[in-house]
């Protein structure tokens, strides 16, 4: 509990520190932006003063030299000089190829009016105004904090992905270890049960009962083998999907409620695919059990198999409560369950077995609320 609290506290500290860092970046960028904007306005005020000096100074050569020097220092701030009536008198630092078009000049003037207040020039009885817009450098600066935040988010995303992948890998190692230990623990009583069955065979006991016990022991052995294979790459061999599916289907049929009507249908006698029998049987078992649970132990359950040119189709259909369309993908996520009991791992394991180990597909083919669900598995023909 204390470890959980420490983890939560650490995460909150990290989030707070990151918030402070982002806030400081934004605040400093804003201050820098405002300072840069003030410097540009100061330059334009000097430019306006030069225009006024040029209009009133009788020493033409000195005025021209002054204007030239100022223009040399203001090469990145577009500006337009207009008279009191709003007519454009001159312009500076605009695209020379476009300035012949009055529409272009009017659009630039509209932008300048929105961005900055004009600087007034008065001499004698004449009034003029200098309009200007932010330089390209200042415009680029506005995107600087966004770029910094995106870089920070990218950095955090990479860290989060690395942390998550390490955590998932650690969890997988834990589950794999538990699964293999479970298989090891089951092995001891299994050996003992096999011995007891041999003793029962020699006694005057109904052999049908002994055969059924043998089937259950074989089933336990299969389950132990399944757990032992978790975490390792399974060996795939060419098997008949019809006989493999039917064996698991019949085993569950004989041990399920008589209120469930079981049907096994196949359009072909044989359909071969490269599978691991034990893991594929686990998938069929999960789908059948899931269907029985959805019907609450009462209804009809059908397993249908058909084969096309490329895929073998295995479809399990029930007459249960159905699944909302919004949950078609969620039901295959680890931990998702609508039952009061269970960990929600059956369909998640089935998806992993089919898609990762057998390069197949598993999905909800169709479902209607209170009418039933069909889940389909696709395996490649061998």
Strand content: 15-25%
Q: What's the number of extended β-strand segments? A: 11
Strand order of the largest sheet: 6-8-9-11-10
Class of the largest domain, according to the CATH hierarchy?
A: Alpha Beta
List keywords for this structure.
382 residues, alpha+beta, Beta-Lactamase, Heat Shock Protein 90, 2 domains, 5-stranded mixed sheet, 4-stranded antiparallel sheet, 9 helices, 57% helix
Which helices and strands appear, and what pairs or packs with what?
Elements: H1 2-56, H2 60-73, E1 79-83, E2 88-92, H3 102-115, E3 119-123, E4 126-132, H4 136-142, H5 144-202, H6 207-229, E5 237-240, H7 241-254, E6 260-266, E7 272-275, H8 277-294, E8 299-307, E9 311-318, H9 346-357, E10 361-368, E11 372-380
Parallel strand pairs: 6-8
Antiparallel strand pairs: 1-2, 1-4, 3-4, 5-7, 8-9, 9-11, 10-11
In brief:
The chain has 382 residues and is of the alpha+beta class. The chain folds into two domains: 2-142, Beta-Lactamase (2-Layer Sandwich), CATH 3.30.450; 235-380, Heat Shock Protein 90 (2-Layer Sandwich), CATH 3.30.565. Helix content is 57%, strand content 19%.
